[in-house]
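Collaborator request log, item 7. Partner lab (contact: R.S.) asked for a structural prediction of Protein yellow-like to inform their binding assays.
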Amino acid sequence: MKLFVFIAIVAVAAAQDKQPRPPQHREQFRVVYEWRTVDFEWESPGDRETSLNSSRYIPQNVLISGINFYKDNIYLTLPRMLDGVPATLAYIPANQNDTAPKLKPFPSWKDNTLGDCYALQFVQNIEIDRNGIMWILDNGRVGTLTQNPDAKCPPSIVLIDLKTGENKLERYPLPADVVNPSTTYLNDLVVDNRDGDFAYITDNSAVDPGIIVFRLSDKKSWKLRDTKSMSSVPEAALFRINGTTVNLPVNVDGIAMGPQFLTEDETVDRTVYYCPLSSYHIYAINASVLRNESLGLKGEGAIRPYVVDLGTKASQTDGMKMDSTGTLFFGLIGNSTIAEWNTTVDFRTGQRTIARDPNYIQWVDRFTFDDRGNLYVVVNRLFNFVKNQVSVEEVNYRILRSYTGLKSYVFGEDLMPTKPPHAAATAPTLAASLLVFALAHLLV
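Returned to partner:
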């Protein structure tokens, strides 16, 4: 039967209550699925038993991380941080009565074969764009939490056209001069379906963090680096959740993208938001800057003049998700909280807590929207997983859902430029745009 556990919505400061509110009627978050350990729909009972006996399947080592929605399926990523993860991408039907459903490997068991570089090796996150294309981040390196991580295959972008139903993998390995196969960690992405389709990807490599840009039209990629905004900071590396403490100095992690807007010179741009996991800050940069390949060639610091520090949060954030109107949803890990921010107002005063529960909201990882106005959230107690303290007697993974009436940023309005686009170096910077907004706000 369905779960009917509701997550409390809590009041926020009076100053925040004065901020503009989204017009939609909101619903409390409800637990719709939960698992102690993740199991699969095996090809046969004997295959499951063989996998258990050979340690190909170790239930407590299977972590649910990413989530996305397409038509009637919820797609989940299962990164192979430890041994014993038989599939790294799977799905469940969205509408069912089982509250702990078994996962179906996607596209198939064969397409999740460990060591086969035509198959998926280590999927941390996915995105599904407005055209029904699934964009998959496959790190290629497995066992990242073991003593001997194994770079079995090149880090790659993998695409699947879900509309056809054929579910064929199209793999595009990232070149070694962009990412180091032994150190890169492709963490999260947003997809920009303009001008040939771009993906902006966070690489929280411990030695070379940055944002990777992949252009689908010619399969070209480059990387932009900014140590100040993309690196972890010591004061935010310690996480305390319900009496458990873990030290995780993780670099640039969460990423989101806002709606299209017209610049002062009447070209179309978008704002990309990002944050290191181990930081209290959130940063912004224009997509036109990330698209400027020449800035990637200039190396560290080239994009620094274009980066805007929007301010601080009450706690650290893992995944973030933007809706089509410019509302950002994000977790506050240390506070067991889900928050939102209307990006048309100042981040420092516009953040709102929409749910808090220390029992049910233990490490918000990723968000997604379905096509019916629902927001889904993955909660996975990652702090226990990285410390090897997963108890199979407790619920470790939950999916929460709330009706918001909203839809994903990928379905945002398309604007038409009145002038042709030109290089980011001559375009107004995000800093200039925010300055104009601030002056207008003061005048009002």
